[in-house]
Design brief:
- Keywords: Membrane, Transmembrane, Transmembrane helix.
- Residues 135-359 form the Nucleotide-diphospho-sugar transferase domain.
- Residues 62-83 are annotated as: Disordered.
- It is a single chain.
- The protein has 620 residues and is α/β, with parallel strands linked by helices.
- It folds into 2 domains: 106-334, Spore Coat Polysaccharide Biosynthesis Protein SpsA, Chain A (Alpha-Beta Complex); 347-613, no CATH class.
- The protein is 29% helix and 15% strand.
- It is built from 20 helices and 24 strands.
- A 9-stranded mixed beta sheet has the order 3-2-1-4-7-6-10-9-8, with helices on both faces. Strands 17-14-13-21-18-19 form a 6-stranded parallel beta sheet, with helices on one face. A 3-stranded mixed beta sheet has the order 5-12-11.
- Strand 8 and strand 9 form a beta hairpin.
- Helix 9 crosses helix 10.
- The longest helix is centred in the middle third of the chain and has 25 residues, at 397-421.
- The protein is globular.
- The two termini are 52 Å apart.
């Protein structure tokens, strides 16, 4: 079993090697999406002893593509799994070769991503978005055999990277994370000598529009790269103005042509990283590419000379090849009335769970059917925010924290009720007045298109990775599952959930039809007293345990207290860990301010950064 790294040497000796990845996006054709989605997650009766045990990962999807014919542009079917009674081919047959790339390439272009089993759901999402766009010239590199087998039985084109990596999430910035970056550089060096154009993608991005026609508009470009630019440099779909791009070139989305300058840069990049394992792959690329910037190659294309003065580089526009900031915070594409091509989950604060949650908020992540019909049902509420908190006065620390704290108190009550009723809480949309970053700033980035207030991602305030973590019950009480704010609007929500609904209207006890009773005032509507206790909730709502969705008209004064004080103490321990920090004030070190879920129980609480090292800790 030869590792794929040998391909770098084999390329020099004209021996074969390669891989291709490909992804998909959600389109408005519900029927098409339904069939492919069902294929991804439908049960399988595979008898292979080497298939993955997790049923929704190992099930063979349906196919809608025609099989390829030699010499044609029709590619081999994606989502068509091998026969269930067949055996897993030997690992050697998944080696990256030039022939493999050639089988998947179309118009001389191959689209590639790679990862380990921990990112299986990201990879399936990436592939489905591409196939929904009728793009299938893709390959996925598997860094562990568990992922390779799972993708093979799904009918996804896959090759073995020979990395033998752990199947768990390695975490951003870890040594293993940096090792993955080096694998990317080796992969680029392996593929380019075979003469194919390579669109290399990270797994934490999705395609929203077929990018290949856009990339083909710039045939003279050696490399087209995305960037971390957050201030717009153009207001249409032209390449970014390279003279105005001060942010890093982001290597999560970039397109390589097999030209001499591109191959030279790839080799120097590889040599740099292999010589010093402390260099981050993206920093290394930026250092080399920026050795020279300019002049422009012409007056119109937006391409410029970079690296050694011969490489022609273009920077993809920040408004439509979106970062996590230009998409989720600024909605730059929306303000400029443009159609986004790509979404990359950068600029977020919740690790892998935060990336997944953001894609779910945007309704572009594909989860198994059980995600949309959880045991115990769902709880949601209509948030209530006074206009004065949202719009009046200056946008500053005080007004931002007043707005967040007001919403946080309602969410705390909702989490308590969800815990008591053993339901999954659908988080409300969250409004912010100030942006969050890793460094000091005046509230929003100068020159950006951030509107105030803006609908902010959950990870701007809440520790999404902690909320989704299995915390010990003996210390933190029962787990409280959550869903993204857009969940109930997702077209993948099944009809049986949509049709099983109870509206709860809070009322003042003693007024008409307002009693702690399970008697509905009309079908589908329950009037329920404000400031009810744990026992009142359990008693009344036990009659509605089979209802899929319970939606409260408000959370203002919905919950009074726990009866079980031990449970309340554990719940409090959990809540204190659910919120993060805002960052960062100017002219103060440290500049971050801790959110406090129980701010209302601390008279005189005000948002301020820690004044001493002893104060620099979360409020627990």
């Amino acid at each position: 079993m030869g590792g794929w790294r040998n391909a770098v040497q084999e390329a020099a000796a004209s021996k074969p090697l390669f891989l291709t990845i490909y992804t998909t996006i959600i389109v408005g054709i519900v029927a098409t999406s339904f069939y492919v989605f069902s294929a991804i997650y439908s049960p399988s009766a595979s008898t292979s002893t080497q298939s993955i045990s997790t049923s929704w990962l190992s099930s063979p999807p349906l196919s809608q593509n025609k099989a390829s014919q030699p010499g044609s542009n029709q590619l081999k079917t994606i989502w068509q799994a091998p026969p269930s009674n067949s055996k897993m081919p030997p690992l050697e047959s998944f080696k990256l070769t030039k022939e493999l790339v050639g089988e998947r390439a179309k118009d001389n272009v191959i689209i590639v991503t790679f990862g380990n089993f921990a990112f299986m759901d990201f990879i399936l999402t990436w592939v489905k978005h591409l196939t929904d766009l009728d793009v299938s010239n893709l390959l996925v590199g598997a860094m562990d055999t568990k992922l390779l087998e799972a993708l093979y039985w799904k009918g996804v084109p896959v090759f073995d990277m020979g990395s033998h990596m752990s199947t768990i999430d390695v975490g951003w910035g870890s040594p293993t994370f940096h090792k993955m970056g080096r694998e990317k550089v080796l992969l680029i060096n392996a593929i380019l000598p075979f003469g194919y154009e390579l669109l290399m993608c990270d797994t934490d991005m999705v395609w929203l529009k077929d990018p290949l026609p856009y990339l083909a508009q710039y045939p003279d470009a050696d490399i087209l790269t995305s960037s971390d630019q957050v201030v717009p440099t153009v207001v249409d779909d032209r390449l970014a103005d390279w003279k105005q791009v001060g942010a890093a070139y982001n290597i999560g989305i970039f397109h390589w042509r097999p030209t001499e300058p591109a191959i030279k840069l790839a080799k120097e990049w590889k040599d740099m990283l292999l010589a010093d394992d402390k260099i981050w792959d993206q920093n290394g690329f930026n250092e080399l590419a920026r050795k020279q910037t300019g002049p422009a190659i012409d007056d119109d294309s937006g391409l410029f000379y970079a690296f050694d003065g011969t490489l022609k580089l273009g920077i993809l526009p920040e408004s439509i090849f979106c970062s996590g900031h230009t998409y989720f915070v600024q909605a730059m594409y929306e303000q400029l009335r443009l159609e986004p091509y790509a979404l990359h989950t950068t600029f977020q604060y919740g690790g892998t769970e935060g990336k997944r949650h953001r894609l779910r908020e945007a309704m572009v992540f594909y989860d198994p059917p059980e995600y949309y019909d959880a045991p115990g049902g769902f709880l949601s509420f209509k948030p209530s925010i006074p206009k004065s908190l949202l719009l009046d006065g200056e946008h500053n620390l005080e007004s931002h924290f007043s707005l967040i704290n007001y919403q946080m108190k309602q969410i705390r009550s909702a989490l308590a009720i969800a815990s008591l009723l053993n339901r999954t809480l659908v988080m409300p949309p969250l409004w912010c007045r100030l942006d969050r970053l890793w460094f000091s700033h005046p509230g929003v980035l100068e020159g950006s298109m951030t509107r105030q207030p803006f609908l902010c991602p959950l990870d701007h305030v809440f520790e999404v990775n902690v909320m989704l973590k299995d915390l010990p019950q003996e210390e933190f009480g029962p787990a409280i599952n959550i869903r993204e704010y857009s969940f109930l609007n997702n077209p993948l929500l099944p009809q049986q959930v949509k049709e099983s609904w109870l509206d709860v209207q809070l009322c003042q006890e003693g007024t008409e039809d307002c009693h702690a009773s399970s008697n509905t005032s009309r079908p589908g509507l329950l009037r329920f007293p404000k400031n009810s206790t744990e026992e009142m909730f359990k008693t009344v709502f036990s009659s509605f345990k089979d209802v899929k969705v319970i939606q409260f008209s408000s959370m203002q004064g919905a919950f009074y207290s726990f009866t079980d004080k031990t449970r309340e103490e554990k719940f409090t321990n959990r809540m204190k860990r659910y919120v993060g920090i805002w960052c960062c004030v100017e002219n103060h070190t440290p500049g971050h301010i801790y959110y406090d879920m129980y701010w209302d129980e601390k008279p005189g609480w005000k948002p301020a950064p820690p004044q001493t090292p002893e104060e620099d800790h979360p409020p627990f």
